[in-house]
Amino acid sequence: MDQAKDKLTAVFRDVFKDPHIELDMHISPQDLPNWDSFRHVNLIIAIEEVFLVELSPKDVQNARSVASLVEILNEKGCGIGL
Amino acid sequence: MSAGNSNLAQGSVEDLLLACKKLAQHPTYTNAVKIAYALDQPNSSLKSLPVIRITVGGNCNTDFLLPGLRSGLLAAGFKGKITSTSYDNWMQAALNPKTRTDYWVIWLSAIGASRGGLERREMDFSGIQNALKAIESRGQKAIVILPEALRAEDDPYSPYVRWRWGALSKLDSVLPSFVVRFSAENLQRRFNHCHWHATRYWTMAKCPCHPDAATMVGLETAKVIVQITRPRVKAIVVDLDDTLWGGIVGDDGWGNLELDPDNTGRPYIEMQRFLKDQSEAGIPLCVVSKNDLTLAQEPFEKRSEMVLSKDDFVYFSASWDPKYLAIRKIAEALNIGFDAICFIDDSKIEREEAKYFIPELIIPDIGQDPEHRVAQLSDSGMFMTPFLRADDIARTRRYKEEVRRQDEFEAAVSYADYISSLKLKLLASPICAKNISRVASLIQKTNQFNFTLRRHGASEIMKLAECELNYAFCFSLTDKFGDYGIIAAVIGVKNGESVEIDSWVLSCRVFGRDVEQAIFEHLASWTIENDAYLFTSCYCKTKTNGLVAKFLNELGFERIDDAYELHVKNIKGPEHMIDILTE
Known about the structure:
The structure holds 2 protein chains of 2 kinds. By secondary structure, chain A is mainly α. Chain A is built from 4 helices and no strands. The termini of chain A are close together. The mean pLDDT of chain A is 89. By secondary structure, chain B is of the alpha/beta class. Helices cover 41% and strands 18% of the residues of chain B. In chain B, helix 1 (13-25) packs across helix 4 (66-75) and helix 4 crosses helix 12. Chain B starts with 12 loop residues before the first helix and ends with a strand.
């Protein structure tokens, strides 16, 4: 069981109001039609709360796909196995 | 992001209200968003809520305010229909005569005014003033969230300090008087200043603070709006003993009440100060106390620490009647609806009784610990006075002039019904080593309901109790709300065919609930079983125990010389609705 991955999945499901989202590295704003800039900020707020990290504006800018988001979070020691 | 919240959208209204309550204790943006999302789902029970239309805007992105604002409104029973104007665009919307709304919430953040804390620019004061005048001309109300402290101001000599203070003082002079000024600085302190400041959210989304902090601002703004919308508290009815001072004036005496502001009296003085401020803001104060009138007034005349004087009250009721009777008279005399009267009493029993008879009353659940009471009252938001009109200030005086004696009236609900609903149970236990310390303390300390004022010590009481001929019982009381503990003790000395009431004390907090009648019934049946037929008692009249004389009279005692006597065959009643058990 990868707890960190489950936490991230739960965040995505909550923010995008879709209980069926399964995370994979290829998901980007093109795949989630309501991944707009406002939703992006909501995603960041939730991630900061759940993983107890702070993302810099640069991180936020770069985090616009699951792959880059996971990379950024893992750099901060979140240990998401995806 | 707790899992427990994830189904809020399908949950009941109760779940939603519980989530709002949790949010108020621990505001997070993500939880507020969940509540807001649930509010967007079709839910028939929410349809009936009254709607408040609000337009928000400011020199920042105010979208982050909305979930908290909506949750705060829901918690108070309102549905917010909220429009957000785009970033820095509120003035145009305000000047547009077609903008229809009840309230404006305008966030003039310091971080927005300084372009992210980078420039100390002059705000557009005349633009702000004109926009607000346009809002006023349409009869809409406005709340302005004033510039908050910046992180740079952690250095007290920072040039941003003077810049912001200058802006605040200029704003104060240009904001029309109808505008409610909302200072966020107190929230910043409460929230934890470091968490408040999160410039990354300014950078990425023009949010003036951490979104969690914005949620808190939303919740607090909702309180202000609710306060303006709802009919406010128009009169306060307050208890005396253990509410305005520590202790019971009838038992402890005016000189022994806790009123020392540097000691345990501080919270009581704080309560008095709070009430005095309410009175000065136009909310008339009334006393309703179970007390002897003369005794109840003594602290006001004789204790210099008192903040409140008798003149601060428009109505002063001290009697042994149920409190709702006096509250009804007050409502009539002041011509105020029950739903605008706030009843402050430390006793849960009194609060429950008042609520039973007058369900509309506003009855804050103030706790046992006096230390927290004023904070609880002020946190409720009920006493916020965003506007202070000259009319408010004059109101207290006007009420005082209007109060006049009202005729007795019939109670709509009978007191007997109420007493029976309490399901009072009285347990009579023989006085023994197990309960002697409480009994002795009752006998030594009770001044109001005390027949003979004989202050026996524990060993004397035990001697009387151990004599097989004597009646020596103490009584504990329970009702559907809980246990009152030992509240009375009676010692009867049997002398041939008569029983002399040597001591009879009853805690005054239960007096008037037929308890004294039930105790007498217990004594009377014991007397009959033990082949006696005459009660005698002396009654030592003092300034404080006038209610004993009234009670003796009710029971049918006759005065013979210095003693009081009652023959068993002349017992009237006693009538009560209390179950009596003997241990």
